[in-house]
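One thing: can you check what follows?
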Amino acid sequence: MATELAVIKAIEIAMNALNSVNEHYYEDDIIIGWWNDWGARDQRAHIEKTFKHGRFSREKRTLGIVNGRWYCCFKQAALKAKGHPLDDEKN
């Protein structure tokens, strides 16, 4: 339970970091994200084995205006801590 709560908090921190990143790529211990590049996200999600349950995207806003989208995937440890299987594991 403590590990799951730590991962949830780390996910919140990563999501907040995406709001302030001015680069086209973001990576930490939990997620990997690409600015407006879903293909790169999908390719890495296949490598991480998080394609089925660990991909997501979110709008990026500047001064309240949507100006792009972050395409992200979870790393393996984070996805497992959230209780989801990797792609090659049984559900």
Summary: The chain has a mean pLDDT of 87. The helical segments are 2-20, 38-48, 76-81. Strands lie at 25-27, 31-35, 55-62, 65-74. The radius of gyration is 13 Å.
